[in-house]
Amino acid sequence: MAIPRRAGHFPSAHPSRVTRRRPAPGTRPLHRAALVLLAALVVLAGCARTPEDIAPAEKPPEVSAEASGLSVPLDDFILSRLDIQTIEYAEDLLTRACMRGSGFDWEMLPPPARTDTDPLHRRRYGVIEPEVAGRYGYHLPPLAPDQQAREQVWRRRDALPPAERRAAYGHDGQGGCRNTARTRLAEGVPKLDQQRLNGFIGDTFEASQRVPAVVAVFGAWSRCMKAKGFAYGMPLDAAADPAWARSAQPSPREIAVAKADVGCKRTTGLVAAWSTADSHVQLDAIATHRADFDRFRQARDAELRAAEQVIGNG
């Protein structure tokens, strides 16, 4: 039986990392803004390695200033990766107290990190970092040490003895101390229409690609790629090439395409143009649907306050 867990690696407009999480049927994680269902973009992470496939000694490249500096207006309404770590830590504190009451201990996840080692928008516009392209192509870099530490805890939870598993997750994987902890954290938190929020995130991202300035820069990017010997209509086409999913390691051609992709993005100013259009489209959506976004913000803030209160009392 799979252990329900919070999606610690999550997409913004598309997945930034493939995860090994397998929530049990019917489980509703509390990180309500973390799951954005954009089927057209899931392929960007389709050939990524899972944490088990990555050698722990392999050091991932440092996040570039450009990637770490990317943000969009909808960030103000969703939980960041570090927010989710805060909520997970609070959930663990409550779970540990409950488990000890049943005669068991509970291994805590590491405390929330100070900085995000894999920023939410790092691959929002595809691969944009030369070092990442040169080492991994469109495959994903290994997890940073702090993320590896979290994954190791989750793997050990997958192997809990039966009695501890029942105490933690109940007989059906949806009860036990974890459910008690999540119920406690949800007290007083406004309910959120997650599907509606995901719809705004997905729709605005798709709309940003139809902005005339973005269409124009996509054309310039495509011509640049063709001059280098690679025929792709737009950046997401290059990232989603099914050839990359055929191997756990990037091929020489994949590396060559990714390096050309990053170079053409820089030559054409694609990231700046697309990011600007992305922000304008999102701001328009926020202004048009102010009541919805007020509710989204209230729910996010209430969830974080509940977690911070538990940690403060922990």
TrEMBL record:
<feature type="region of interest" description="Disordered">
    <location>
        <begin position="1"/>
        <end position="25"/>
    </location>
</feature>
<protein>
    <recommendedName>
        <fullName>Lipoprotein</fullName>
    </recommendedName>
</protein>
